[in-house]
């Protein structure tokens, strides 16, 4: 049996969500590279002792990378059974990472909370993943 026969057709939306997340990660990475030049922070130095704004730009990217693997796992599990819901929740999470970063880029770490709505998407795919697990175990 081929993979296209196994997956629901709406899984295509999930694939576009993964692509959207790649765009987001690329954007955040490019912003860190530009900030390295602007604030003269050389590799492999992760943070600046002098430039708070650089540190905020770096943290926005780093924090996203810290949570990204878990999001990918839960996004994929949820999408196997609930592809449309997972795609919507994934798009919410990815979009929130832009909001999070743009708030952080101001140099005021408290403004990163502009992306707090992303928890809807993040916890949403976790809840759907739990539902998938319970269905597999015959509990639901």
From TrEMBL:
The chain crosses the membrane at residues 12-30, 71-96, 116-137. It catalyses: leukotriene C4 = leukotriene A4 + glutathione; 15-deoxy-Delta(12,14)-prostaglandin J2 + glutathione = 15-deoxy-Delta(12,14)-prostaglandin J2-S-(R)-glutathione; (5S)-hydroperoxy-(6E,8Z,11Z,14Z)-eicosatetraenoate + 2 glutathione = (5S)-hydroxy-(6E,8Z,11Z,14Z)-eicosatetraenoate + glutathione disulfide + H2O. Its EC number is 4.4.1.20. Keywords: Lipid metabolism, Lipoprotein, Lyase, Membrane, Mitochondrion, Mitochondrion outer membrane, Oxidoreductase, Palmitate, Transferase, Transmembrane, Transmembrane helix. The gene is mgst3b. The keyword Amino-acid biosynthesis does not apply. One of its GO terms (biological process) is lipid metabolic process. Pathway: Lipid metabolism; leukotriene C4 biosynthesis; Lipid metabolism; arachidonate metabolism. It is a multi-pass membrane protein. This is Glutathione S-transferase 3, mitochondrial. Belongs to the MAPEG family.
